[in-house]
Structure formats: structure tokens, C-alpha cells
Amino acid sequence: MPIDRTHPDDRRPFVVLIGLPGSGKGTQAARVADRYRIPHISTGDILRAAVRAGSPLGQQVAATLAAGGLVSDDLMTDLVRERLARPDARSGFVLDGFPRTVVQARALDEMLAATSPAPPPLIVILVAVADEAIVRRLSRRRVCASCGIPQSVSEDSEPLSEPCPYCGGSLVRREDDEPATVRRRLATYASFAGPITDFYRVRRYFASVDGLRHPDEVTAALCAQIEHFLGESSGGSDP
Phi, psi at residue 198, to the nearest 5°? Predict the structure, then answer.
């Protein structure tokens, strides 16, 4: 997977975004990818695509998910390695949902180190949002039962109290957005989020941005931090 060295005026970063479920990380990853014309690589998308493709890896994923298991580090790493080997990821990417463990993070380092004698610096940014803010944010999230478009409602709104502004259908709260469920999800995430954040926090190209601001402000902060790191980087390896 040789690195595509773009013109200095057309620098494209290699980015990992990390953050809690509901932090807005997926939305921001898509925006950053669009800004730099690089692929937004989501592990959820990778898993679904692998299953649809029916590849050997996809068949393993399908069997694991059907049995209610978690995709192993080795299998998730193989799927990501396969995705990063495609031509569109050679000049940059935004990873969303990977790595989730230190084992996966080390594997990603090895993938990048294998691409060239001077692998690109990996920029890792934490979209920081406090747990209770996540609970409040997700408790306002609704999904239209008819058109499926997700949206936010006022904080004191109850399910079924407002029609969908797009199609008039009923807005419902997903079961996994119930406050008690969200807190359980956050507790589960914290069990591996701490180690992965600590792994990257000591890196030169690690930063944290406040994910509670307006989405446009979060995007601006992310891009400013990426530009700063691109300016610092000389294209060498990340210490």
C-alpha cells in the first residue's frame, strides 16, 4: 500500500477520531473527510459491506454477529487492513470506530509503518463530551417510524408528541437511546476507551476538541487542529 504523496498545497491527512457514542464523532468524521477529499472509513460500514459482499472475512463477521458475539481484534484488523489497501485510502483517510483497543491501535501503527520507509503521521483527535451531556443529547434523539430520518427534539418532548417535519410520520425514541440504556453503553465503552485514549495521549499528533459546541464550531476546531499538525509534520513517522 504505497503512500500517495500529494502536492504540499493539497495535503491530505491520516486521521483517527475517537469519542463516546453520541459525541457527534461520525458526523464530524464525514465532514472532515469531505473537507480533505479523503474517505470516511467507519467500522460499522466496513462490517455491513463485508457481510453484503459475502467475502471470506464477511462470512466470518456474519457468523460472529449471528451468534451474538463481538468481532475479535484480529478479524476487525483484517477488515480494516483490507479497506486501507484500496487506492482511495492511500493518500489519506478518516477512521471512525477503529481502533477501539490498544491491540488494534498497535496493528494500525504496523499497517502504516509497512506502507513506506517514512510513513505519514497519524493524527488522533478526541471529540470530548461528558457522559451526562451524551445522555441528554441522545435522550432528545428521535427516529421517524415512516421515513427513518433521525432528528433532535426539544428536551422535554415525549415520544409520539411531535410529527416528523419531513413526512408527518411518528417520531419514536430508539430503545438504545433510553437514558438508562445510554448509561450502560457508556459504562461499557469506558472499559476500553480509557486505555485507547491513554495510548494516544502521549503522541505528538494527539489533540482533544470540545464536542459540546455547535457542530460547525467543532468542525472548524478539528480542521484547525489538523492543519496545525500538517504544518508541524515533515512527513516522517509519528514518535
Answer: -65, -35
Confidence at 8, pLDDT banded by 50, 70, 90: very low
pLDDT digits (tens, 9 = 90+) for 61-112: 788 767 666 788 998 898 899 899 999 999 999 999 899 899 999 999 999 9
Closest CA relative to residue 89, chosen from 72, 73, 111: 111
142 is catalytic: no
Domains detected in the chain:
8-131+186-232 (3.40.50.300)
Tell which residue, 141, 137, 135, 143, has the closest CA to residue 185. Answer: 135
Is-catalytic flag, 141?
Answer: yes
Tell me if residue 81 is catalytic: no
Catalytic one of 141, 183, 203, 213: 141
**Pick the catalytic residue: 100, 137, 142, 173?**
100
Of 140, 152, 153, 146, the residue nearest 169 (C-alpha)? 146
At 163, the amino acid letter reads P
Lowest mean pLDDT segment, chosen from 107-116, 122-131, 166-175, 216-225 = 166-175
Say which of 37, 52, 86, 174 is annotated catalytic: 174
Task: Write down the pLDDT at residue 1.
Answer: 46
Exposed e or buried b per residue across 72-101, where buried means at least 16 C-beta atoms within 10 angstroms of its C-beta: ebebbbbbbbebbeeeebbbbbbbbbbbbb
Catalytic residue check, 25: yes
Residue of 25, 31, 137, 142 marked active site: 25
